[in-house]
Amino acid sequence: MTLEDIKKLANLARIDMEEVEMGEIAKDFDAILAYVGQVQEAAMEGGTRGEVSKVSESYPLYNIMREDVVTNKEEEFTDKIMKLAPNTENGYLKVKQIL
Amino acid sequence: MIDLKSLTIENTHNHFKNGDFTIRELVDEYLKVIKNNNERINAYLEVYDDIDEQIKKAEEMFKGGTATILTGIPFSLKDNILMEGHIASSSSKILENHVATYDSFVVAKLKKEGVIFLGRTNMDEFAMGSSTQTSAYGITRNPLDESRVPGGSSGGPAASVAGDMALVALGTETCGSIRQPAAFCGLVGLKPTYGMISRSGVISLASSLDQVSPLGRTVKDTEIIFNAMSFHDEKDSTSIPNEMRIIKDKTIQKRIGIPRKFLSGEGIDKEVMKNFEESCDKLKKAGYELVDVDLPSIKYSLAVYHVLMQAEASSNLARFDGIRYGRSVESDKLYDVYAKSRGSGFGKETRRRVLLGTYILSHGYYDAYYNSALKVRQMIKDELTSFFKDFDVFMTPTVPFLPFKLGEKLDDPIGMYLSDLFSAPANLADIPSIAIPSGKSESGLPFSIQFTAPYLREDILFTIGKEFEKLV
Question: Which CATH number fits domain B1-472: 3.50.50.60, 3.90.1300.10, 1.10.10.10, 3.40.50.1000?
Fold first, then answer.
């Protein structure tokens, strides 16, 4: 991991950081990735033992949806939620120019 | 004077009924300890200002005959669990002034029981840590030895109970965050089956693993709290339907598996293992059959956990943008509002983990890390499912070592991660696990052992746990 790699990630993740810290993170990254890299080995090993089926087939997960209906009264939470926003105008969130 | 250390939920309820002391008298005792000790211990970030109203409501329940066993019981609340009208900050600067607009499912349930929430407690920022040293609001000390960490991320909740600043506590666990602080503070911590307790109103770390978890001095205390919160909730799409929760046959085989190889890795303290062997002997004498078993996949659990957690955390924390709520730093450009709000709002550990998660999920690395981790997670689940056909639980020490000194392991991320070595299999397999005190070291620090049971089988943990408590 180079400083440039970390800069790119910080940019993608929208996190402003000092260069010193990015340098430290680059070092930590190598140690952490070496450690978590075990998962590749383990997945391969499992694959050769025939234990790993396709995740999509064996993972007993399914989506739970609710009816697409309004469950709260109009404006029931609007005020409370808008109060948390740092910058508002006439009931809208205010942001810097996007385009 | 009330002997706070002798209190359990049950005997406190009886004291209330017998008029030995009132709810207010008990709460005042805790508030006195908080006033004297919290500045040093830093278990609480805030003591709530509506305690009087809560007491009044609980007293009325006793008068009106609607009191339950939890009415008037003083709780502390981890800073990532929402209570309407109160700040919930996940111990992060980015949520410093974030006032909850609604009650989390668990708080709503416990409010109905008339519990008293004394305040919110410290934690590692966004629950990222194992020692409560990454909080934006200072470290928390272990009340049993103030030069040591209380564990984490639920270090504040654990210190509040161990330090006589609450009778019981609610924390959360993603990987060890309730069991490890329970171990370090000499308490019982229960990590429930994933989906048993609604995550609605809990600030997310890694959504496929997060679970609200009770903490107390006894197994029975955690059982009572668990039962009061364990219901289906349509606001959490991963909540287990009520009909699936019914266990018809609760008989146990009295067979415990010991994953020997898993316990012989590097970095496991000799004293901890000696205590573990002694705990095993006690169970054998009590009529349990202990069998060495080989579970070859569980050694990968911690690595799998770190891949999934970082990936999920980086996605979950994308919501903090300086626009909708939380800290916002003024700037001319929209990009800078995002980057400066997040850069100054997140602490160091959080920044590092978000970057790691971003890397793991990026094009070209997604398959190598994230998809591999999902596959191995399934391997671990399969392995444990077949193991549980012949066993009630598997047993390990809760943590590989004793509570460490403040400041230790902060510059050694992998060393810190190893705190959760024995915790990870239960989180990845969605199964329940409990940490129970198992004696004290020569230096007076607490030992803890851990039982892990099949999916939905908290009942086994309560049965074996209560028996084990009597043996210690």
Answer: 3.90.1300.10
Q: Beta partners for A92? A: A89
> 3-class SS at B455?
coil
- Work out how many CB contacts closer than 8 A connect A with B: 146
Find residues 25-64 of chain A whose CB sits inside 8 Å of chain B.
25, 28-29, 31-32, 35-40, 42-43, 46-47, 51-53, 55, 58-59, 63-64
Q: What residues are paired with B258 via a beta bridge?
A: B292
Query: Nearest-CA distance from A27 to chain B in Å?
Result: 11
Task: Name the minimum distance, in Å, from the CA of B427 to any CA of chain A.
Answer: 16
Identify the sign of the CA torsion B256, B261, B267, B270: positive
A40/B352 Cβ within 8 A: no
Integer Cα distance of B399 and A37 in angstroms:
23
Q: What is the pLDDT of residue B117?
A: 98
B344 CB neighbours in chain A (<8 A) are 16
Chain A neighbours among B 304-363 (CB < 8 Å)? 304, 306-307, 314, 321-328, 331-340, 342-344, 346, 348, 351-352, 354-356, 358-359, 362
Give ipTM to 2 decimals: 0.91
Amino acid B267: pLDDT: 86
pLDDT tens, position by position, B287-313 = 999 999 999 999 999 999 999 999 999
Nearest to B135 by CA among B120, B118, B155, B119: B155
- For B57, the token pair is 């409501």
Let me know: does B79 contact B89? Beta carbons within 8 Å.
yes
Whether B132 and B153 have beta carbons less than 8 Å apart is answered as yes
pLDDT band at A67 (very low <50, low <70, confident <90, very high): confident
Residue with tokens 């800290």, as numbered in its chain: B327
For residue B274, give every residue at least 6 positions away whose Cβ sits within 8 Å of its Cβ, in sequence order, or none. Answer: none
Cα B403 to chain centroid, rounded: 16
User: To which residue do tokens 């800078």 refer?
Assistant: B336
Domain residue spans of chain B: 1-472
**Distance separating alpha carbons of residues B438 and B311, to the nearest angstrom:** 35
Cβ burial, residue B377 (10 Å; 0-12/13-18/19+) = buried
Coil/strand/helix, residue B45 = strand
Kindly list the residues from chain A whose CB atom is less than 8 angstroms away from the CB atom of residue B234.
66
Residue type, B413: P
pTM for this entry: 0.96
B226-to-B107, B164, B192, B321, B391 alpha-carbon distances in Å: 12, 21, 8, 35, 23
CA distance A24 to chain B (A): 10
- CA-CA distance, B127 to B420, in Å (whole number)? 13
pLDDT tens-digit map of B268-292: 999 999 999 999 999 999 999 999 9
Q: Residue A9 is encoded by which pair of tokens?
A: 């990630």
Cα–Cα distance between B211 and A55 in angstroms, integer?
Answer: 23
